[in-house]
């Protein structure tokens, strides 16, 4: 009996006390805190980076034939997209495809993207006609 009381320092043993639960609570708290910090760092990155425009076709200074051609591309972090001053529709993935008239001797294409923080990114592309 004396040995048991010495080990517990005279306290009565609590059968519901589980020290691993306290450690688990601390670990889960720090994991949640890390997740929140990572999430907000990505949101802040989007805030400072602004919209991104990527054109798949046509390539800059490409020479095309015919009367019309399709321009296709993708935008990220954009609320509104404008092609030569006209608003265009994008799908859920940010992809777009629009038909344009090919003019002599070259066609100038201006793509503007505006994000939800009203930051604007502009991409100017020039293609030629055969």
Walk me through this protein's architecture.
The chain has 130 residues and is of the alpha+beta class. The chain folds into two domains: 2-48; 50-129, Immunoglobulin-like, CATH 2.60.40. The chain is 28% helix and 38% strand. It has two helices and eight strands; from the N terminus they run ααββββββββ. The strands form two sheets. Strands 2-8-7-4-5 form a five-stranded mixed sheet, with no helix packed on it. It has a three-stranded antiparallel sheet with strand order 1-3-6, with no helix packed on it. Strand 7 (106-114) and strand 8 form a beta hairpin. The chain is rod-shaped and about 95 Å long. It starts with a helix and ends with a strand. The model has no long low-confidence stretch (mean pLDDT 87).
Descriptors:
130 residues, alpha+beta, Immunoglobulin-like, 2 domains, 3-stranded antiparallel beta sheet, 38% strand, rod-shaped
**Secondary-structure element series:** HHEEEEEEEE
Q: Shape from CA axes?
A: rod-shaped
Strand content: 35-45%
Percentage of residues in helical conformation: 25-40%
Radius of gyration: 30 Å
Number of domains: 2
The neighbouring-strand order within the major sheet is: 2-8-7-4-5
Number of strands: 8
Classified by CATH, the class of the largest domain is Mainly Beta
| Sheet of most strands | 5 strands, mixed
Question: What fold name goes in the CATH topology slot of the largest domain?
Answer: Immunoglobulin-like
CATH H-level name of the largest domain... which superfamily? Immunoglobulins
How many helices does DSSP assign?
2
Q: Detail the poorly predicted runs.
A: none
Mean pLDDT over the residues? 87
* Broad structural category: alpha+beta
CATH architecture of the largest domain: Sandwich
The N- to C-terminal Cα distance equals 102 Å
